[in-house]
Amino acid sequence: MEIHGRCDSRFAKVKDAFAKNFAVGNEVGASFAATWNGELVVDLWGGSADRAGTRPWQRDTLANVWSTTKAMAALCTHVVVDRGLVDLDAPVATYWPEFAAQGKERMPVRWLLSHQSGLSGLTPPFPTEAALDWQRFCAALAAQKPLWEPGTRSGYEALTFGNLVGEVVRRVDGRSLGRFFREEVAEPLGAEFWIGLPESQEKLVAEMIPPDPAAPLAAQPEPGDPSYELRAALATPRVTPEIANTRAWRAAEVPAGNGQANARGAALCMAALANGGSLGGVRIMSESSVARAITEQCYGRDLVLGYPMRWGLGFMLVSKDLPLSPNPRTFGHGGWGGSFALADCDARVSLAYVMNRMSQGTVGDKRLGRLLRAFYAGLD
Q1: Is 31 a catalytic residue?
Q2: Among 48, 67, 176, 278, which one carries the catalytic annotation?
Q3: I need a surface site. Which of 21, 111, 230, 278 has the fewest CB within 10 A?
């Protein structure tokens, strides 16, 4: 198996770990990238962009990163907060008046970002195509009654998160979240990451390969716990890997889960956060905004994911349950199937992993764990 790209000598074990993921049969195609002090120190790729093995994974190959996209949606929200356009403690309805329905008139913006809105799904269930219709989806969310008391516990907003925060951004800025992200973050940083893929980039996209249906789910409901997991799963428009392989999905803006990226692009976006809000002379937000974004909002068993989650404002925070790094100011977001984007403000590190062979779960898997261990060993 030939591994392409570059890797600084002190991170040689990362290349070995990347190669091992292929050698043990865990990969079809993948990329991994990392920055340190704002410099790209690892940029690797290999394998095939399709299941049949007819398209080699190239330097610029993109893949659907699912919920890793949420890190970019959160980042955009913090940009408008940093600019004074949004107050995290103000009611969502201040910016989105229709949102006040069903007792939500006082719900603060921060509860959207910390998955405490109670809006993890829609009732009655929506058809799948509704996820691709921005106005229809947002109207349904505005009219939706929370599935539990907001602000009391987190319940992962699997497909709703992007529209919830994205509509706030759109209302105060005028641009869609995908366009905002492209013009204010990705293009200035030179990052190959799209939310709403142009047709010109279609030829670069890898085929997503579904997880093994026999693999166990990440978590099961605890006895006696309300079945919010089931309610959310039934209510949210259902998306499958097969749908993700369509042009309609890639072209739409679904900031909760349809970002198309390679690891280098995702790592560059996170590098701005890892380095106090700027990268290569491009300032995305203030250092104080980064600090606010990673302030713990809640920590406990997530009603939808089914296991303990420590949430900041839009980001998964390092914890004993999610040991991403030895450093306390580490955060990021994972995507269904295994992708992940991470920033470590203490080590001034960012990294990202993107692949097309999916596993179960949304917070990384053993492939990512192998890469994380190898990378941090290189810092010692």
Answers
A1: no
A2: 67
A3: 230
